[in-house]
Amino acid sequence: MQLGMIGLGRMGGNMTKRLEEHGHDVKTYDPQVESTAGTLEELRDQLDTPRTFWMMVPAGKITEETFQTLIAISDKGDVIVDGGNSNFHDSQRRYAEAAERGVKFVDAGVSGGIWGLEVGYCLMVGGDADAVQQAEPVFLALAPDDGYAHVGASGAGHFTKMVHNGIEYGLMQAYAEGFEVMEKSGFDLDLHEIAGIWRYGSVVRSWLLELLHAAFEKEGKDLEKIRGYVEDSGEGRWTIAEAIAEDVPVPVISAALFARFASRQEESFAAKVNAALRNQFGGHAVQAVETAKAQTQDPRA
Q: What are the residue numbers of the active site?
């Protein structure tokens, strides 16, 4: 089938390649990359009706601007798929705005990262059945066998992907903490080897563990080239907010998110408060900043 792909970054570019490998006719628009179209209007004119557009752009302002332009230039019966990590509340609103113009809207949670081109993308799709059916040949081409589902009504796709990413936070943090315990031990463990054997027969084996093994192989057993600074793109925060609204305890996901916050601090002000309080009530020694810097300075410098 024909598809208009909007956004040719790491995900959109590889998805376009995978679709073309599966015989689909993909027209493209990305102002930063060579594309078949120079504008969204030109992209529209390159597609036969009813058209299917796929937005694969960063969530937030860019997605909103792209969506508003698309519903203004689309015809009744066209489908707009948002494959980014949008908040599901925004997706429900966009569904309603599109429906007012007779345009169909589908929210597609996409997981697979840079490996999706080779192994396929897990797709969690929300929206009306007729809209999903119109775009389904694309979903089936992008996903591996049994890796795609129409999970529910508008917003359900991005809601499911939000929870998926919240779970991912917890899994990653558990691996991170366990490997740090081993790294700090006195056993001089080969973490690359351990990550390798845990991939086979272990109850903690997973694709994330396979990726960690590959990271040790590429970056070295001490990961010395990598700074321990971890960003978050919002889904963990949204998962926790929804859990609070539903009175559901999510201590693991919450702790994992807060660990990411901590990773971005050169020095925690909260830790300074703790040190000052211990000094005040118990006379415990505090370490001056200059002393700490001297102790952590590389002696080879």
A: 161, 168
